Amino acid sequence: MMYDKEQLSARIEAYMQALPFPQEPDTLYEPIVYSLERGGKRLRPLLAAMACNVFREEIDDVLPCAAAIEVFHNFTLLHDDIMDNAAMRRGKPSVQRKWGVNSAILSGDAMLIYAYRLLEQADTSLLPQILRIFNDTSLKVCEGQQYDMDFESLEHVPMTDYLHMIELKTAVLLAGATAIGAVIGGASEEDRGKLYTFAMQLGMAFQIRDDILDSYGTEATLGKKIGGDILEGKKTFLTTAAMETADADMRLKLAGLLHNRELLDETKIARVLDIYDRLGIRERAEKAVADYTAAALEALAGVSAPEERKGRLRDLAAALNGRMH
Amino acid sequence: MMYDKEQLSARIEAYMQALPFPQEPDTLYEPIVYSLERGGKRLRPLLAAMACNVFREEIDDVLPCAAAIEVFHNFTLLHDDIMDNAAMRRGKPSVQRKWGVNSAILSGDAMLIYAYRLLEQADTSLLPQILRIFNDTSLKVCEGQQYDMDFESLEHVPMTDYLHMIELKTAVLLAGATAIGAVIGGASEEDRGKLYTFAMQLGMAFQIRDDILDSYGTEATLGKKIGGDILEGKKTFLTTAAMETADADMRLKLAGLLHNRELLDETKIARVLDIYDRLGIRERAEKAVADYTAAALEALAGVSAPEERKGRLRDLAAALNGRMH
Prior knowledge:
The structure is a homodimer of 325-residue chains. With 325 residues, chain A is an all-alpha fold. In chain A, 74% of the residues lie in helices and 1% in strands. The mean pLDDT of chain A is 96. Chain A binds chain B through residues 22, 24-25, 27-28, 79, 82-83, 102-103, 105-106, 108-110, 112-114, 116-117, 119-120, 124, 127-128, 131-132, 134-135, 138-139, 142-143, 145-147, 149-150, and chain B through 22, 24-25, 27-28, 79, 82-83, 102-103, 105-106, 108-110, 112-114, 116-117, 119-120, 124, 127-128, 131-132, 134-135, 138-139, 142-143, 145-147, 149-150.
C-alpha cells in the first residue's frame, strides 16, 4: 500500500520508541534514551520510508535502517551540543548539561555504534551497499561539522565554501537516508541516484530555510528566540550572502556589528536585519530555497515510478519549502 | 604459509601506514593520522591476523578488518584521553592537548566511522557476521569505559565488578579481534568460540599485567613513571584485591592513603606498596595472570587445528604473560 505521511510518521515513531537498549550501565544508556525521546521532525527516517514506499508496498524492512539514520542524526546533535556548549536542545537541557561532558561523549559514541547495530537487520544481500552509503554519509557529516567549526575563526567565508559546508553537514544525510530507502525499496541504480540528488537539493533548501527562519521567523512558531544566529555571530547563508553583496564600507560595518558585544541584543539584531534589507538578502535566500526545491523536484520527476507514488516526496518538498519552523 | 609474528607485524604496520585518508578538511584528518602513527603494540590486529592464519594460508583478506579494529582501538584511546584529561599518549601530546577538545571529539567520531569503512572490504558473505561481532564488541567497550568512569566515584568496587569492567573495557576487544580473524580464516563456529574464549582470557591476563606493571615495573622498560595508578587513585586489580583482603583498619588506612593529596608522590606510592606487600597483593595478581593465561591456553588447545598452526598464538600468550611493558 501507499502510506501517507502521518502513517509513516506513526510507524517510525513507534519503532523508535520501542528500540531495545540494555539496562546496564544505566549511566550509558539513559542519556541515549533521553536524546531519542525528544522527538524532532524525524525527517530523515521519513525520507527513507517514503523513498522505499515509492517502489515497494511494504515498509517494514526499511524501519531498522531508517531508525539507524535517525539515531546517527541524534548522535551528531549530542556531540555538536558539546562542541557548541549548548545548554538546551528541543526545549530540554542538553545531555552534557544534564550528565556532564564525559557522559555526553561516551553516550554519543555508543549511539553511533548502536546505529550500526540497527544496520545488522538489513537484508544480507543489501547490507554491503547500505553500509557503504551509511559510512560515506556519516563521514561527510563529520567533515561538514569540521568545516563549520573551522569557519568560526574566519572573518568571511566564500559562498561556495558555505554551500559546500551545508551540503556535507546537512544535505548529505537527507540524501543518504533517501538513497538507503530506495535501495531497500529495490530501486534501480539510476533511480537511486536521482532520489539521492532530490534529497540533496532538498537538504540545501532545508538548511537555507533554517537560516531564514532564525532571522525572519516568529518566536511562536519557531519555539525559540529570533536572531540567535546573529547574536552568536554564526556563518549562515544570510551573513555569507550579505558579506558577498556588500561594498567595502558596508562589509566593514556588518563585520563590526556581528562582532560587537556591547550592543543590546535587540539593537544588534535590528541593525543586522536593516543591512540585510538594504542588500536584498532575504529575497536572495528565498530564491535559493526556491531554486534548490525546483532542482529537487526536477530530479524526482526523472525517477521512473508512477507519478502518484512520488506524491508523498513531492508534498514533503513543498511542506519543507513553506515551513514556519 | 605460516607467518611469524615479525612478518605479521610488518604487514599490519605497512597496511596501517598506507591507509588512505582524504586531504580535506585537514583539521579533521590530521589528528587521525597522528593518532594512528603513534604505534603501540598493534596487539589486536596481530591477534586477528594470527587467528586467521591458523586456518588459512594467506592473510591479505584479514588486513582491512584487522586495521578496522586497530582504528577503533585508537579511537577509544583518543576519546578516553579527553575524558581523563590526559596530556600525553605514547610519549607525545594527546590530541586534545594538541588540537583542542572539540577537534578530539570530532576526529574521534570520524575515526570510529572510518573503522566501519574498512569493514566494507570484507567478503560480502562474511560481512553480516563480521559487522555483528564488531558492533557487539564496540558497544561492550563503551560499556566498560562507562563502568570505569562510574567506579571513580565509588570508595570500593567488589572484585567481580572490577573483573566485569576490565572484561568489557579491555578483554572483549581482544576477543572480538580474534573472532573476526577466525571468521575470515574460515574457522568453524565452535573453533571461533574457543578462540574468542582464548583471547578473552588472555585479555584479562593482559589488563591485570598492566595493573601490576604500573606499580612494579621499571620506568626504563615501562617508558613512564611507576605508580601513576596509585597517584591518580585509580581502581585497579591491586587496589580492588587489597580493599577486599584488608581488615577494617587497614582498609580505612588504604582508602585514606589513596585519597591523600598532601603526601609526596614517592611517600604515597611507598606506603601503598607496603600495604600491598603485607597483604600479598602482588602474588595474588601474578596468580590471577597465570590462571587467566592457563585458561586461555586451555581454550586454544581445544581448537581443532594442527598444534604447529596454533604456535604463534601460544607464543603470544606467553610473551604477554611475561612482558615488562
